[in-house]
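I am writing to request your help with a piece of structural work I have in hand. Here, with my thanks, is the record as I have it:
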Amino acid sequence: MRTVRYDDVPDRPWRNGGGTTREVHRDERWRLSVATICAAGPFSPFPGVDRTFVVARGTLTLTVAGTGHRLGPGDLLRFAGEDAVSAVPDGPVTAVNVMTTRPHEAHVWVGIPSTAEAFVDLTTLQTHVAVTPRDLHLHEVARGVVVEGIT
């Protein structure tokens, strides 16, 4: 297992100036990042990518393809990278993003893993990559974003 501390990942500004992203993992199949959304505005399109968005801190309204979704900590939303997406945060929002390049797929959910390609603790934002049952103990880990079954 490889552990990535949130504070050790460079924070890169968005092109539209509305937030920043810390990229934790990227390969040809999938990308895992933690974003901070500071201002209302559109998301960049990602054609050919399936996205899973999970709020870690804060609340916002995320409008996807014309439908608004009110999201708070632990809430998960899936959408296509081609969809028109915009966010209106109630103050700063931190969110975990999993982007899977088609035709690849990933099972993403909020909970505690036994095994997973990655696990992001929603409290500390610390990320564990290539998790096995002996790596994490239930009494040491809060609930988080689990990424598993990447094909």
